[in-house]
Design a protein that fits this description.
By secondary structure, the protein is mainly alpha-helical. The protein is built from four helices and two strands, in the order ββαααα. It has one domain. A two-stranded antiparallel ribbon has the order 1-2. A hairpin with a 7-residue loop joins strand 1 and strand 2.
Length: 183
């Protein structure tokens, strides 16, 4: 879990709870980059953009790694005896990745809505105080990341479908072999 504590004119605090070590390293590295220095007018949601950028890079690697495994399975399984435990593990991992991406997508939608609500409240205050504020691009950045996340989810679902096709093919081949052996 990632929690952000933000008070204008104070240092932003980011708390990481129960984060796997590889993700923790990526998050820490991305948050301390010299190029990343949010201003008071950026609000706390720019941090979520930075955090989600780091997380999305790991999701991207995971989805494409499964795709690579599925492609290898498709290429070699036709000529070899199926490795059932490997196929099971591949299907299990693909399901886990899809579930994770679905939860991440819902979380990103919630963060985006909270960011929009925050900006609306903040802009109402600034208008009443007659303070000019530059356009905040954070909602657009988060929306772009959400689209990327949805694309990863589509790819993950495609991976799951391809694995199910392979499971069906293995099952059919097994049935045909049993009938041939008996016949």
């Amino acid at each position: 879990m990632v929690c952000v504590h933000w008070i204008p004119d104070k240092p932003v605090k980011v708390f990481l709870f129960d984060i796997p070590e590889p993700l923790k390293r990526v998050l820490k590295a991305s948050l301390v980059e010299k190029a990343f220095e949010p201003t008071d007018t950026d609000g706390p949601y720019l941090l979520f953009w930075k955090i989600s950028s780091a997380i999305l890079s790991l999701y991207d690697k995971s989805v494409w790694a499964i795709r690579d495994h599925v492609s290898r399975w498709e290429a070699y399984s036709r000529y070899q005896e199926p490795n059932y435990p490997q196929l099971y593990e591949l299907a299990r991992h693909a399901t886990h990745v899809s579930e994770t991406l679905k939860v991440a997508s819902r979380s990103m939608e919630s963060i985006m809505q909270q960011g929009i609500d925050f900006n609306n409240r903040l802009q109402a205050r600034w208008k009443s105080a007659r303070v000019w504020h530059e356009h905040d691009d954070t909602p657009n950045l988060l929306a772009l990341q959400h689209q990327f996340l949805c694309g990863l989810l589509d790819r993950a679902d495609s991976n799951k479908a391809r694995i199910q096709n392979e499971i069906s093919l293995v099952s059919i081949r097994h049935i045909v072999q049993q009938r041939t052996f008996r016949g």
